[in-house]
Amino acid sequence: MHLAVLMTNTDESDFADRHPRDGEKFATMIASVRPDWQISVFAVKDGSFPRTLSGFDGIMITGSPASVHDPDPWISRLEKLVRDCVAARMPLFGACFGHQVIAKALGGTVEENPNGWVFGLAEAEATVRPDWARGIGDRFSQYAAHVEQVTSLPDGARAWARADHCDTVGFVIGNFVFTTQNHPEMSHAFMSALIEEYGPKLPPDVVDTARSSMEGRADTDTFAEAVARFFEQAIA
Questions:
Q1: Sheet hosting strand 166-173, strand order edge to edge
Q2: Domain spanning 2-235: which CATH class is it, in words?
Q3: What's the DSSP call for residue 153?
Q4: Which of 62, 105, 121, 131 minimizes the number of CB atoms within 10 Å of its CB?
Q5: 230: enclosing H helix or E strand
Q6: CB of 154 closer than 8 Å to CB of 79
Q7: Which of 73, 63, 146 is nearest to 102 (CA)?
């Protein structure tokens, strides 16, 4: 299996330099359950895109502090690539920004969350589990860092998870699109560091809630297995 990771994270700060970049995080996530798979990383936020979809078995789109509404040319180019993937039935997984840009590219709506920031360890409810995600519990936890959310789905999409703080935690289209609003690639150590980095920039109650949430742990292994099974069933 050969997957392309489209890295959208625009953070080039000293903090980012001290931690693995998103391409490495996603590769580590996949390697934890499928160590023999090949991962190629493209920094699409810098204009580095795959020349062709040929040769890849699937695509993963990462998170980003950027908004899908930003006017940067790479975002509109990424939206076109999303549409090309869907037209070709290329298996496509998106997390956070990736989840949102897939929705927007296909005609959905992304807006600011009226509940404000969702930050730290967030619990969600699996409402309609696709076959590849059967191992995910009725309630599961993931690390989250977002203030925008998908508010209407593209045609043909159905939500598979929700939360009180976010109506669409993830959606699927057929057996070839799978998304989550959250960050399955993040480790407990990285999320803890991110909370401290963002602490001075966010409302104190958001930071306090995020710190308290970290007493729990994300369902990292379970979700990584679901992502792997998604790609496997899509090309079977």
A1: 38-42, 2-6, 58-61, 92-95, 177-180, 166-173, 157-163, 118-126, 139-146
A2: alpha beta
A3: P
A4: 131
A5: helix 220-235
A6: no
A7: 63
- The Cα–Cα gap between 236 and 92 comes to 15
Q: Which residues lie across from 122 on neighbouring strands? A: 142
Q: What token pair was written down for 219?
A: 């369902």
pLDDT tens digit at each of 236 positions of the chain: 999 999 999 999 999 999 999 999 999 999 999 999 999 999 999 999 999 999 999 999 999 999 999 999 999 999 999 999 999 999 999 999 999 999 999 999 999 998 899 999 999 999 998 999 999 999 999 999 999 999 999 999 999 999 998 999 999 999 999 999 999 999 999 999 999 999 899 999 999 999 999 999 999 999 999 999 999 999 97
Quote the tokens at residue 184.
């399955």
